[in-house]
Amino acid sequence: MPRSASVALVLLVALGCRYAPREEPSGAVLYARHCAACHGTEGRGDGPVAPALRRPPNDLTLLARENGGRFDAAHVATVIDGRSPVVEHGTREMPVWGVVFEAELSDEAYTGYRAIERSRSLTDHIAAIQVE
Questions:
Q1: What is the pTM of this model?
Q2: Architecture in CATH for domain 24-128
Q3: Which residues of 68-80 are buried (b: 16+ CB within 10 A; e: fewer)?
């Protein structure tokens, strides 16, 4: 096959194969999927699984209030993805969502980065449900 024909074939294949990034679920969707069972649909710690837990889940709507009016997004994200264990709570009943997200994304590119993005989306959702 002549070189020009090879180049043309490669271009045709490349143009026919368009990259379509998978749409990431929103923080609200991730929250409903992974958090609401324990923390409740509104984040108040009253999900249907809450009574079965040894410790009641946190009321996520009060995180800023309990931190002097400041929502600590960096800390919340590290608790979600498991980089920051919640030592003062004893054993960790909350799943390490960073590992869960990486497993969900294992067949895709940039798994670790995208798992952190999901933790950030969840963090943004939790920031949006803070009460004054």
A1: 0.72
A2: Orthogonal Bundle (1.10)
A3: eeeeeeeebbbbb
The full set of domain ranges for the chain reads 24-128
* Nearest of 31, 23, 20, 21 to residue 120 by alpha carbon: 31
Tokens of 97: 């969502």
Q: What is the mean pLDDT of each run of 10 residues along the chain (132 residues)?
A: 59 53 84 94 95 89 97 92 60 68 78 84 97 87
The dihedral built from the CA positions of residue 61, 30, 49 and 86, taken in this order, carries a sign that is negative
Single-letter residue type at 101: F
Look at the block and give the residue holding tokens 């608790």: 79
Nearest to 100 by CA among 34, 42, 51: 34
Please tell me the distance from the alpha carbon of residue 62 to that of residue 131, in angstroms, as a whole number: 6
Structure token pair of residue 19: 């990259």
